[in-house]
Amino acid sequence: MSINIVVVDDDPGFRRIAATLLTARGLRVVAESSDGASALAAVRDHRPDGLLLDLHLPDTDGLTVARRLNEQEDRPKIVLTSTDKSFWSPEELQHAGIESFVAKDKLFDADLKSLFTP
Predict the structure, then answer these.
(1) Which of 30, 31, 51, 93 is 20 to 30 A from 14 (CA-CA)?
(2) Which residues pair with 101 in a beta bridge?
(3) Is the pTM of this model over 0.90?
(4) For the segment 65-107, what is each residue's pLDDT rounded down to a tens digit?
(5) CA distance 39 to 9
(6) Whole-angstrom distance, CA of residue 45 vs CA of residue 42
(7) What is the number of domains present in the chain?
């Protein structure tokens, strides 16, 4: 069974790298989004198992997207990414429905498959 992922980041280069890493780890990228609105639409359309979600998006922030998804019954596992990891606590992430955080510069070394495994 494949694990379907949506990659959300406003940087197309990072989306490409993230998709390549996820695919190399045995995950399937079903969609990519560059902002919060299209991320919510992609989740609605594709019903992914997971969301690799950037914190800073042009129309909103990743915490807001996560909170909106957290209101849904069958929501994906959310892994937040950012270059900035200093301004929120693990409690804030958990409250927003975010399972884990991976700094963008640590994505290559992260065990991505286990982050999204149910």
Answers:
(1) 93
(2) 80
(3) yes
(4) 999 999 888 899 999 999 876 666 778 888 888 989 999 999 9
(5) 9
(6) 5
(7) 1
Report the distance separating Cα 106 and Cα 6, nearest Å.
19
Phi first, then psi, for residue 101 (nearest 5°) are -130, 140
| CATH code, 20 | 3.40.50.2300
* Owner of token pair 């510069």: 105
Q: How far is CA 82 from CA 31, 61, 104, 106, 117, in A?
A: 19, 11, 5, 10, 21
In angstroms, the CA 90 to CA 20 distance is 28
Domain that holds residue 13: 4-116
Taking phi over 0 as left and psi of -120 to 50 as alpha, with beta for the rest, 97 belongs to: left
Q: Which amino acid is at 32?
A: E
Nearest CA to 39 among 22, 23, 55? 55
